[in-house]
Amino acid sequence: MQLLTSENIILFSFALIVIAFLYSSVGHGGASGYLALMTIFAFPVAIMKPSALLLNLFVSSISFLFYYRMNYFKPKLFYPFAIASVPAAFIGGFITLDNTIYKVILGIVLVFAALRLFGIFNFKEKEAVQIKLPFALAIGFVIGLLSGMLGIGGGIILSPILLFLGWASVKESAAISSLFIFVNSFAGMLGFLLGGKIIPIESFYLVPIAVIGGMLGGFYGSGYFSNKTLKIVLGTVILMASIKLIFP
What we know:
Layout: H1 6-25, H2 31-40, H3 45-69, H4 75-94, H5 99-117, H6 133-150, H7 155-164, H8 170-194, H9 201-205, H10 207-221, H11 228-246
C-alpha cells in the first residue's frame, strides 16, 4: 500500500521527527500527534491505530530512560494508575470502533491535546499532596480503556491531572507518563493482535524516523529544554486535524 507520494515523504518525515521530539521532551509517546499527522496525510484508519501504538512503544520508552536516569521516576506514583490502566487498555485494544465514531472520539481527544500544547492545561506545580488510591485507580481505568480503543498512550491526559491534583512535579509527571504510555501502548497492541488483527508493514517504516526525534527530545527534555513556538505550531496542526476528523 502506497501511503505517501514521493513529494510528501520528506515533509511527512520531518513533521514526524518534530512531533516525536516535542512529545518525548515532555515525557509523552506522541500518539495524538502521530494520529493528527496521519489524518492530515489521509492515512487509512486501519493503519492509524497500530502505527500510533507502535511508535508510542519506541518513543515513550526512550523518553522514560532519559527521565529515569535523572531520578525523576517515582514508582509509588506510577503503580496505582498502571494497575487499572493496563487491563483496560488490553480490553480497549480488542475494540474496533466504527470509522465515523472513531474519528469523532479521536477528534475530541486531539482538541484536548492541542489545547495542552497551547498551554491551557499546563497547570503549575502544587505542594505535594498524598495520592488517593481509589481515585487514581478510576482515572487509570478510564484513560487505559480510551488509550486501547484509540491507539494513544494516555499521557496527554494523565500528566495534567497529576499536576492539577498536586500528586507530582512537572518532571515527575513526565517520567510517570512516559512509562504509563509504554505499558498502555503495549497492552493495547497486545489486545489488538490477539483480536485477530496484524500490524501493517507500513507502520514499521515509520519507527526509525520517530526514534530520531524521540532520542533528541528525551535528551533535551529531561534537562531544561523548552520551545513554546514549536509547541504552538504543533498545537495548530493538531487542532486542524481534529476539525478534519469531527467535521469531514
